[in-house]
Amino acid sequence: MSTLYRVTDPATGEVVEEFPTATDAEILAALDRSATTFTQWSQTPVAERARLLTRVAEIYAERAEELAEVIRLEMGKAVPEGKGEVALSSNIYRYFADNAEAFMADEPLRGPEDGTAWIRRKPVGSLLGIMPWNFPYYQVARFAAPNLALGNTILLKHAPQCPRSAKIMEEIFIEAGLPEGAYINVYASNEQVADLILPDPRNQGVSLTGSERAGAAVAAEAGKNLKKVVLELGGSDPYILLDTADVAKSAKTFFNTRMGNTGQACNSPKRMIVMDDVYDEFLTSITEAAKKATPEVPGEEGSRLSPLSSVAAADRFVEQVQDTVSQGATLLAGGKKYDGGGAYVEPVVLTDVEKGMRGYYEELFGPAVIVYRVGSEEEAVELANDTPYGLGAAVFSGDVERAERVGAQIDSGMVFINAPEGSREYLPFGGVKRSGVGRELGPLAMDEFVNKQLVFQKNS
């Protein structure tokens, strides 16, 4: 089988290292090891599992510099942002370690007169995680931490461009003291997922974070095999500015939020919906900020404009923008790759993006800002909801009640009021519509791949 996994520096396009794809025999052996280890790991006391996950959190913190450098090379993340991702990942492991016993506690049921009833939470078995390249550590932590705390075991198929970070994460779990089969990294192909892992009765479910297309394909295979799925897919999140006392500051907040990870985040605010009375000043500020941005080495402190994850991703992004402009949108900034090679692209500001244009419904996965002018709350809500996605949203106003009123009308899994969207270990993460199904993070994360077993005890 040909090599599928390789490290390619997106700043230069240079292939740094290649990793062989697993053989079918290796995949089946990993499945067997994961299922066998489940018997041991699921019977390990919750307090002991929590202690080991606490150690995982500590190792992430201790190795932050090294881990950030790895993903800089794999997918171009600026080192300061990489350190932030590592810190968040550490917090996630610690959060589930600290709360595992409380989240798994028996839940009494009210009502039975002839006995006592409760819900007992039990792990279900070996799970498959399929994770993307844009947040190599964080995406894994969202899936792995709650499920390892529950007592499930994990096979993890990472993105083909993240083989080093994938390998290191497996090593961290072993270093922390988890049994070797509790978390197994597999360099699997898509065909091996469909033909070997999902049909195997030893696999009990799959969680995927990635594209709509990948989510639909995996969900179809899982459905054929009666396996549960959690899917975190794309987003075209609205960022609604109803009013502000400082337009320039609001524009800066939005621009910095949108440029995080060079715009490569599912819950990045991709559509800026601005009320008419502040629109012109806001648009001027955003356009000026985009034109001032210049490409920087991803390792430099304060770097905001790193390369996209790959040259192919940069080419696709530019194609989407150019197609949208050719269909009648107005391009105020950016629109092409920088000279000098690599995957650097200019930050884009678009207006007049209308239905039927490519950029109206497609997710622009890069440093693109689409700005809309609206004249009323009703128009803002209608535009915000006119998308096949429903991941997150943010609403800003000096009148909190107004912001909450508008936010309550948004069809999304998450709404942030007077705060940019962001991930925190204690806030459930997930969407509706074509943004996926299920929740990660927060107390809801441990209610996904779990057997909520009813226990009824009749009175004697």
UniProtKB/TrEMBL annotation:
Keywords: NADP, Oxidoreductase. Residues 5-453 form the Aldehyde dehydrogenase domain. Pfam families: Aldedh. InterPro entries: Ald_DH/histidinol_DH, Ald_DH_C, Ald_DH_N, Aldehyde_DH_dom, ALDH_GabD1-like, GABD/Sad-like. It comes from the Bacteria. Belongs to the aldehyde dehydrogenase family. This is Aldehyde dehydrogenase family protein. It comes from Brevibacterium metallidurans.
